[in-house]
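pls read this protein.

:::
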Amino acid sequence: MGRLTRAQTQELNRAKVLSAARDEFADRGFREARIDDIADRAGLTRGAVYSNFPGKRALYFAVLAGLAEHAPHAPPVQDRTAREALAAFARAWVARLPLSTDEHHGAARLGMDLMPEVLAERRTRLAYAQLLKLDAILLGLALERLRPPGPLVRLAEAVLTTLHGVSQLAAAAPGFTDPFDVVSVCEQLAGLDLGGGLPLTPDVPPARAADEPWSPPAAIDAVRGTAADLAGDGVLAVLGLHRLEAAEELVRAAPPAASVTAVLVTGSPDELAPLARLVVAEVCGCLRQTFPSYAWPRLRVVHDASGELAAAAGLPAVGDATEVAVRVEAGRIVARADGRGACHAAATSGVTTRDHHT
């Protein structure tokens, strides 16, 4: 066997650290876990751990993200009503929760320290709030395919509020809530009319015409868990983790036949990028196994921790407040907009009224 390259060695060490950290967190819990013990389990130095992760919290988020992304899922269903899909979604969600009979620590309770770590800093709280908003947009768009007409993002928010509340009770008061009751509640929510409507159309300048090359790197659509074809025509928005609510403007404003992609970026990729992967994977994993594929939201979500995709869109630097959108046609960027309202501006650039009704 040939000598490993530097990149291969780094990737191998990173995998060792993640595996060791998963075992350490499962055995001792996040609070009691120590970086030195993780390094010993991995057969590496303390410095090797910190060369891959800036701290224990970033490592914890990365472990949870990996577990969520690779969790086993049932095959997608062929057909369901909105009521049936929400009940199945709730069943898939509560099936992941620890039971009152589970050990205090262990694999089933790995995620019980997530919320305290999210609440520890304002930047993580802001990112988490927007990530939940993105989850609600994805679930709401899926529900709209099964229960038209009208926007259902607010209904999705109510469903996720219920399920996240159950998750917290499972950690703080195991055995308090009957999972079958939670499923019934979510099933009943399918018929709820919360009123409200589409997000307000932002008053922003139109997108600027452009003529730039478009050569995106390979990427994975986190919604479907498959490769995302970003070379085709459509609208792509680069969104910092504090601007994810703009993804709804992107979908609502784009013509029905246009592809729409939200590229998630952050100014703290070592810590917030794995948190983003975790929160999106929790909802998308449940969506894929409980909603028929024709109901999956057309919005694609791509994680861009390296910033490579953002750079291809003309952004050499990004942050959590970034909102830049481009329109792509025939392999060229033909329009771009930046700042609040950029998603709406780019999605409607060069679009006629007929485009929105075809």
About this structure: The chain has a mean pLDDT of 91. The domain at 208-357 is CATH 3.40.30.10 (Glutaredoxin). The radius of gyration is 21 Å.
